Amino acid sequence: MLKWIAVAAGAIVLALAAAAFLLYQGADQSNVGELEFTNQLAIPPLLQPEVDADGRQIFELELQQGETELLRGKTTETWGANGTYLAPTLRAAAGDEVQVNVRNGLPDETTTIHWHGMHLPAAADGGPHQMIQPGTTWSPEWTIDQRAATLWYHPHLHPETEDHVYRGITGMFIVDDLEASGLELPDSYGRDDIPLILADKKFEDDGSLRDSKGPISPTGLLGDEILVNGTHDPHLRVTDELVRLRLLNAGNARVYNVGFSDDRGFDLIATEQGLLQAPQQLDRIQLSPGERAEIVAAFEPGEEVVLRSFEPELGTNFWEGRFSGADDSFDLVEIRAAAELAESPEVPGALARHAFPAAEPAGEVRRFELSGQSSINGQELNVGRIDEAVEVGTTETWEVENASGTPHNFHIHDVRFRVVEYAGGPPPRHLGGLKDTVYVPPNETVRLVTTFDDYTDPNLPYMFHCHVLQHEDRGMMGQFVVLEPGQQPGSPPNE
Ligand code: C2O
Ligand code: CU
Ligand code: CU
Q1: Ligand 1 and 478: CB distance under 6 A
Q2: What pLDDT does residue 495 have?
Q3: Whole-model pTM?
């Protein structure tokens, strides 16, 4: 009898091991060498604002559902703004007053639109508290008060962000300022200044978006098809020697490690919150969900080269890494240079001249421990609870520890920060600029320094969270308010 039990137990263990092996074997994904780059890369249109009598720029966005041909010959039900998939690029300059009328034309779906990276009042932020009911319009207004940067916007309804972003509502919001436009950098939108919105999807055979995840998906769904600006299998024709690429990781979970197929170098000129002080020669730039980078690359007349995402360095163990995309690589877009290229001025050796916050810990230290796949400091999000209260005008050090084996990152609304310590050492060079989202490797700590300059509101919080959207939706998110000296935190609207 005992012998039979032992045999049966042994068989079960073997079967489980075999199943785990098969899952592991099938979990890495790549399209390298499989694309033909048939389709011309779409460039999201620039949305023209109306200018009212007070000089305010008024943008109109209409959220809608529809059918889009994402894969040739198939239709996919998708969401978009002013179109059925993705959203137009908004553009405004420091000092501009803007208003965006966001009409929710989605059938029976409440959502929100968050201006990721924008420094603005909490009431205009578009986080989970600024819900837009179907058929209604939300009209936040604010004054652009930050440096030139590549920002973006996306839904932020709790706990539906992963789903709403995956369906396709994603747009860029480019902020300009005099300092940046005074530099000789490629800046003709759609010509030598190209937005690249990266989003990975999985498709069913009938073309619909798959939303079910595999049995082991620590960070959520990882798509095996990459859409760039909504274009599958894309190529981009360039006509200038130097081209600026504004990279945005708009994916739910995938980390992209972007470089060129021939390993050529490029200049990193900006991270999420604007220009670096000087360009940095790199041959890879890794972007976790929500992160942006602006790079300038040089091309030779008539050449073709592929922009590729190489296997990212996630800092995971081999098992967790396999199911989090660490072994995945993808061709993103083939760049085809014209036979004759217009001459471009060299990338300036000095970029941002304005003072950066000092790259050293300062002020009060707040600790945030990301644990498991759903909590910060041992708690899941409660939209009725204010987790942190900071005083306006103060500088603080936020110490973020990934206490799990799973990839996480960390994003703070409203502010820009500097990374002052990364995984036990000084920040690597590409993290030396101004940021709003940063990767936090498993079992490591990242220290950020940030200042809370204005926009006090005791009741309406801003969010901080992991931007792996499955984690955010599961509750790896918290709320902070900015207070006047002596003011007490109030209570968020109960929704
Ligand atoms: Cu990209 Cu809380 O957002
Ligand atoms: Cu944000
Ligand atoms: Cu996470």
Answers
A1: no
A2: 56
A3: 0.97
